[in-house]
Amino acid sequence: MAVAFDEMNGPQGELRPAYEELSRWLKETPPDALEHRRQEAELLFRRIGITFAVYGDSESTERLIPFDVIPRIISGKEWTLLEKGLKQRTRAINMFLKDIYHGREILRAGLIPDDLIFQNPVFRPEMNGQDVPHDVYVHIAGIDIVRTNPDEFFVLEDNARTPSGVSYMLENREIMMRLFPDLFARHRVAPVEKYPDELLSCLRSVAPRSASTEPTVALMTPGVYNSAYYEHSFLADKLGVELVEGRDLVVKNDEVFMRTTEGLKRVDVIYRRVDDDFLDPLTFRPDSALGVPGLMSAYMAGNVTLANAVGTGIADDKAIYSYMPEVVKFYLGEEPILKNVPTWRCREPGDLAYVLDHLSELVVKEVHGSGGYGMLIGPAATKATIEAFRDKLKREPEGFIAQPTLALSTCPTCTESGLAPRHVDLRPFVLTGSKNVSIVAGGLTRVALKEGSLVVNSSQGGGTKDTWILDE
């Protein structure tokens, strides 16, 4: 694997301009003072109660996501490029989803195999021909970005269903401003605090036409046992909207109402953090106790907006991801600004043969996997693990894609033995409303805290950093 690009000390070890002020500050700050503030940050996170649940973890049901106090810094020029690429990609994803559930021009053009859509477990035939308010399917997208050199960012994956992590972006910034005012004073950092206002504005803008002039928005959670429940309650509070569970909602005459102490109140927009399968027991899983009977009837009648729309999982699919460059060109007539990571589709015999011959060098992912699970990182795997994966691939080649083991960029990170480079990725959050696409300057930087590890997911021991976009 190639040597990783260090975002602070560039390819030749020269200090990069965006990090000059941080470098000076670090030289002036004694290591014990930095360690003291790191401990303070951990204490604050514990007090606030920022945790995530780990399913199947016998040690504990909830954990604190480790937070690193050294910010990741991105120049304004770099961010401008990223922003353009993210907006382009999100527009294409929304056009793709509308097409897949309507005219299917991209299938007629032969750019994507039909079976990848129609045999996909997250394709929702219920959405065929169904219009959604303002043609927006993905209102909130979390697009994971990786970097391999000073000039290139790649999209690692698209999260188009219920992307999580924005609460950590906001809390990370609040903690940093509280603990490091002196460091902030030396930089012009673009704010992220306006995200809740922008999200609320975005959600209200996509309310159905039958909504009142002040649409009512609610955030729907599966409940306290969900791994992201902290984020659900945090966001509802920041947005100033009700946090509801399925049992708090009722459908009457194809309209959705929430139960309140003053009686039933109509809900126009539901920011749902509940998967499709569990939304409505009358349409999807009949055993779901998390959903609202009749919700899909109200949705199809055009009386409620669901954000994100039902059926967006097709754009999350890692096999569909491999076609995204073609998707962008097909709908927008433009070359993609942000490239994909080179990807082998194991469903194609030639690609499968290559992958089987190079398993020890590649990262192999389940097409429907997430959270860093069900993945083979060839260079770090044992021979036995590789052989077990080889058998899986031969049995179900269509269930996997493979990618080169990228040398993800690194950022300086606090470790037990002092500052050291650790691999990072970035999840910016893209909001699509009825009239425009917007992105708060920043995102969630996830960091692989184990030396040499490329897995940044919190469920796999990763941590987070504050992301500073410099106003230039």
Automatic annotation (TrEMBL):
Name-wise, this protein is: Circularly permuted ATP-grasp type 2 domain-containing protein
This chain's source organism reads Tardiphaga robiniae
InterPro entries for this protein: ATP-dep_Glu-Cys_Ligase-2 (IPR051680), CP_ATPgrasp_2 (IPR025841), UCP005522 (IPR016450)
Mind telling me which Pfam families this protein's record contains? CP_ATPgrasp_2
- Circularly permuted ATP-grasp type domain residues: 71-448
| Organism placement in taxonomy | Bacteria, Pseudomonadati, Pseudomonadota, Alphaproteobacteria, Hyphomicrobiales
